[in-house]
Amino acid sequence: MHTIPQLQQLITDALAVKKYGETPVELYEPIEYIMSLGGKRLRPCLLLMACDMFGGDVAQAVQPALAIEVFHNFTLMHDDIMDKAPLRRGKQTVHEKWNANIAILAGDVMMVEANKLIMQVDNSILRPVLDVFNETAAGVCEGQQIDMNFETLDTVHVDEYINMIRLKTAVLLGGTLKIGSIIGGAGISDASLLYNFGVQLGIAFQLQDDILDVYGDPEKFGKQVGGDILSNKKTYLLIKALESARGETLDQLQYWLSAINYDPNEKVAAVKAIYNQLSIREQAEAEMNKYAEMAMGNFEQINLPDERKSILKEFADALLVREY
Question: Distance between CA atoms of 271 and 265, rounded to whole angstroms?
Fold first, then answer.
């Protein structure tokens, strides 16, 4: 079996020689640009891990793995337009460097390219692989739309939030693992268990991200801590706080949510104090652990020797042990 660094290197090498097209340059340069911005390439690596775990030929899974990475970056390119984001991984976003029309069209071509790459599997598994990929892609778009809908809603319930992150974030992990397992020769039952594992792991990961945004060390977290608070983003923590707060505490929380002119550090500190008062962090961690345990419950049922599952288990453990 391959190590995680070996699988990541396969992806890096394949991306280094990948060509998307030449003319018109305004269409293809933005694709080359966003794909060159880096990232951990975790999703394509997961596909290779799943294939390898079931004894498949990893070389046969590289192009479908690239499909996942191209698709993921396509969603980022379009998300950046919707969010009016100026930066992606510390560099100008495509719509800022070129313009929104170019970013939309380049993203469309990336979706086409992802479909071309995912089809580079054996004909015997083409239909099931395409079914998983298309269902996954539609789910991610549904999740993004639901997330945007949340911005205009006064009240969002926890179950609605969990469903949103399941679609926007988690189904891509589940779908990626399932595609890799199909290429590797997994049976229907094991492929489904691995899919459920990936989805539940993805939900746990996003809940941890919500927690880290408030309580993380910015140097270790890699993002601005408190960003969700400043943008009034309806995360698990804010939703639970709005459900739990009463009286003066609720009034204070509503004040900060409606405040226009404020000191950012003061707002973060004030909302964080409310979270602490209501034990929101502990509730969020309990929810995260619930989904992590569900994920591992599915993983343990996969009908493979433990040694064949060790690499993916190591990866999952590392994903959920990020420092605060």
Answer: 10
